[in-house]
Write a structure and sequence with these properties.
Blueprint lengths: L4 H9 L4 E3 L6 E2 L2 E13 L15 E5 L2 E4 L4 E11 L4 E7 L1 H4 L3 E4 L3 E2 L4 E10 L5 E4 L3 E9 L24 H7 L1
Antiparallel strand pairs: 1-6, 2-3, 3-4, 3-6, 3-12, 5-11, 6-10, 7-9, 7-12, 8-10
C-alpha cells in the first residue's frame, strides 16, 4: 500500500519515519520530494581503462553547491535528506518528469529497503547534447513509500547502511564475502 500525505505526516510526527532536514512542502499527496545534496563523485580514470568488479573502484569526490553535468557524463550525487526507515516500510526512488524531459536521468537502483538509514546516492546521467547545471537544494526526485504486510525479519544492514555523501559502488565487498 502506497502511503498518503496524511500517513506520512503522522509517521514523521510520531518519529517512526525520520527525514532530516525536511520542510512541510516536500510532502506531496503520495510522495516526499528529495533535494540534491552538495556532494558529487565520479569514477577516477584507471590506467587499464577497465572497471573490475573484484577491486575497490577509486572515486573523486567534489563538494560544491553547483555542478555542471556535461553531455553523456555520469556522476553520483546525494540527497540533502538523511532517511531512517522503520522495518515495515520501503521506498521507491523516482525522478522528476520535468528533469527527464531535459535529458537528465535519475536513478539509484530505484529501491530503499526497510530498516535503511542514510542519505540516498543517486546516479545521474546527462543524455542531452547540452550541459546541465545542477544546484544543491534543488528538487531532484521523490520517494514513494509503501507499507509492508509485516516488519522485515532481516531489515537492511548492508554495505551502504549509514552512508553520507555520494557513495561509490562497494560491489567488491560481495566478492570478499564469497572468499
Amino acid at each position: 500500500m502506497i502511503l498518503s500525505d496524511k500517513t506520512l505526516f503522522e509517521m514523521i510526527e510520531a518519529d517512526t519515519l525520520q527525514i532530516s532536514p525536511l520542510e512541510k512542502h516536500q510532502i506531496q499527496p503520495a510522495s516526499v520530494d528529495i533535494r540534491l545534496g552538495n556532494t558529487f563523485s565520479i569514477v577516477e580514470d584507471l590506467p587499464s581503462g577497465i572497471i573490475n568488479l573484484e577491486d575497490e573502484i577509486p572515486y573523486k569526490t567534489i563538494v560544491t553547491d553547483t555542478y555542471i553535468l556535461l553531455p553523456n557524463q555520469f556522476v553520483l550525487a546525494t540527497t540533502m535528506e538523511y532517511f531512517h526507515l522503520p522495518d515495515d516500510l520501503t521506498a521507491f526512488v523516482e525522478g522528476r518528469s520535468s528533469l527527464g524531459r531535459m535529458g537528465l536521468f535519475i536513478q539509484n537502483a530505484g529501491w530503499v529497503d526497510p530498516g535503511f538509514h542514510g542519505e540516498i546516492t543517486l546516479e545521474l546521467y546527462n543524455a542531452n547534447r547540452c550541459a546541465i547545471e545542477l544546484k544543491a537544494g534543488r528538487r531532484i526526485g521523490q520517494l514513494v513509500f509503501a507499507k509492508m504486510d509485516s516488519p522485515a525479519i532481516h531489515p537492511y544492514q548492508g554495505k551502504y547502511q549509514g552512508q553520507k555523501g555520494a557513495t561509490g559502488s562497494r560491489v567488491y565487498l560481495d566478492m570478499e564475502k564469497q572468499r
